Amino acid sequence: MMQREMSVFIRTPFPTFRRSAAYARGQGRRRGGYAQAGYFKLSTLAVWVLLPSIAVLFAVLTVAVAGHERRLVNRMLMGGLAGGLATIGLEAVRITGFHLGQMPGSLPQLAGVLLLDRFMLGPSLWSDVAGWAYHYWNGVCFGLIFAVLFGRKPLRIALAYGVLMALGFLASPAVTSLGIGFMGRDMPGMPVTVVLAHLAYAALGVLTRRWIRDPEWIFVRSSAGAG
Prior knowledge:
By secondary structure, the protein is mostly helical.
């Protein structure tokens, strides 16, 4: 069953998806292991975790606005905006690496296939939309987390944050499942591309310094009276 699923996946007419064959083989192994271990598919997690978490986030923002928590509202909105824009920089590096053969596949496109449970069918317009939306939403959320926790900090803090994000991704089971070894050691260009892409994402540090009103950590009372 899994072999037939993989063959359908690899024969898809979409060029970028065919280039993801190594990822597909690893993803197939991981899905088999997840089924045996009782884990959920990404499409299931989207319904039961992703969508509720988005609702909770907007609920927190709504409560903060109603409660005149100007400091938190400023950080959430500007951090999210900065994260979304910084993801454009990340994508410029990632796509370049992908077309140079330094990435095993188009990860947003693959994420869309898994989100809509089209693993045996291949990508569609709506799976691509879902995958890219999911990818950019991650960028928005990581920017929001940075802004809420750290406030207006020097660029070096954002660079360190980007490197930690890259290392966290490289050390995750998602990379191991690609069949390129732990942290992508069997595809040396991939870790380099990932780190460079997340250093580009650290541009959010420049944006948050411009847009966030106070420099304090979230756990320190603002001396600027920002709320």
